[in-house]
Specification:
about 425 residues; mainly beta; 7-stranded antiparallel beta sheet; 5-stranded antiparallel beta sheet; 33 strands
Length: about 425
């Protein structure tokens, strides 16, 4: 009889090796807790309870389940200091019909900006997160029907729409360029780093969820050699940042960053797209190529275009390219860009966020922009965590507004009572079919 291998998950559950690199465990689930949703005068609904601190994954990862009945949320353990290796966060499911919340997993892999990287699969059955097993963060699939969880060989930053695979840069390296997006380092004063240059043996990894095969899909060197201008200095080190499939699963967009020993260059973000097999790598042009050109690139929901805030004539604008870098255009000459813009499939409406001080604390305003009628509406304004008042910038709370799957609602983050919470704005009466 073969000796079975065992490991411990974040919550101390015993994980059994099903095959090399695949672990299975079953842990206790919390009882569902009922609570009242709070409706604000502006028609905004707070969908999280007052018992903790809640975030969703990011502004370009939909927390609504495929049926839109459930929300995936991360319950953070605190908000007064950065994540520490070994601390756990809760993976929660909110039932929008029954007004209940349930903790279905606990993980050591979390950050203030992306929570526990929660992703739905193609149905309401499976929810995906990461956890630290051994020395690395790896993808975990949670079966909501059986209660079983399965850990795979590689990490997840994004999942293919058909659940065939996950892609990711090592989560232990993500926080090198910006805190809050990966997994906390074991040694935050001396975190793991890559050697200078663009590594040929590190980059975007693909893990097949059917075979558990993990392979290097695109290396850092593959991307860096396609930048049309050389780095301004020779002592830089390349890292990956956001990695995303388009909604159709036919293309991946990837952000590449280069940082230098004195810290300069961390805001540089060049954007590429390529096929799911790593072929046909395309560079999306920006001006300047090196330096602060813009921010927050993400897929248009049509799957053909990338949208991004870019500086055009020294003013921030909402801009768009086709995935191959062609057909660049400014989406509006009237409205200034900014925040975290998301555009719906027909290309008419953009939702994004804007920040200001009301004299006492910082507020966030959710903007709804109609590109056809050239009108803008302020959906709501709410207090959030003050970026200037926190001890560490990673503790900020960005609204990260995102469309529901039918693009009739918008979910966002705010903190009107000082604690991170999730809110849903129903825009059905404001969106023209």
């Amino acid at each position: 009889m073969n000796r079975r291998e065992f490991a411990r998950t974040s919550a101390g559950m015993l994980a059994v090796a099903l095959s090399p690199g695949v672990w299975s465990c079953r842990g206790p689930r919390s009882n569902k807790k009922s609570y009242e949703f709070k409706v604000y005068p502006s028609g905004i609904t707070k969908v999280t309870p007052d018992d903790g601190l809640y975030v969703h994954t990011y502004y370009d990862v939909c927390p609504f389940s495929p049926s839109q009945r459930y929300l995936a949320a991360t319950k953070l353990p605190h908000q007064d200091h950065n994540a520490v290796f070994g601390e756990t966060a809760d993976v929660c499911i909110i039932d929008l019909q029954e007004h209940t919340i349930e903790t279905i997993y606990t993980t050591k892999s979390w950050g203030f900006q992306t929570g526990a990287h929660l992703h739905w699969g193609a149905s309401d059955r499976y929810l995906y997160t990461n956890d630290v097993i051994g020395d690395s963060a790896v993808c975990v699939r949670i079966d909501r029907e059986s209660g079983e969880s399965t850990a795979f060989a590689g990490p997840m930053y994004h999942i293919a729409p058909d659940e065939s695979c996950v892609i990711s840069f090592p989560l232990e390296l993500l926080d090198i360029t910006q805190l809050g997006y990966g997994v906390p380092s074991r040694d935050p004063k001396n975190p793991r780093r890559l050697p200078p240059g663009a590594a040929k043996d590190e980059g975007l990894w693909r893990t097949d969820l059917r075979t558990n095969e993990k392979k290097l899909l695109v290396s850092l060197a593959d991307l860096a050699e396609r930048i049309p201008e050389p780095p301004p200095r020779k002592d830089g080190t390349f890292y990956l940042w956001h990695s995303r499939f388009n909604p159709q699963g036919t293309r991946i967009h990837q952000v590449l960053r280069c940082i230098f020993p004195d810290g300069h260059g961390t805001t540089n973000a060049t954007v590429f797209t390529f096929n799911p097999d790593g072929s046909d790598i395309r560079f999306l042009p920006s001006d300047p190529v090196w330096g602060l050109a813009g921010g927050h690139p993400n897929w248009h929901l049509d799957g053909e275009h990338i949208i991004r805030n870019l500086s055009v004539d020294k003013r921030l604008r909402f801009c768009q390219w086709r995935y191959d870098g062609s057909d660049f255009k400014v989406l509006s000459d009237k409205f200034l860009g900014g925040g975290h813009p998301r555009i719906e499939p027909h290309g008419r409406y953009i939702v994004t966020d804007r920040y200001a001080h009301d004299g006492q604390r910082q507020t966030v305003t959710i903007r709804l922009i109609d590109l056809v009628s050239e009108t803008e509406e302020e959906v709501c304004t709410m207090p959030t965590i003050d970026r200037d008042a926190v001890s560490d910038f990673v503790l900020r709370l960005d609204a990260h507004p995102n469309w529901s799957r039918d693009c009739r609602q918008v979910i966002f983050q705010a903190a009107p009572e000082g604690s991170r919470q999730l809110f849903v704005a129903d825009l059905s009466s404001r969106i023209l079919s």
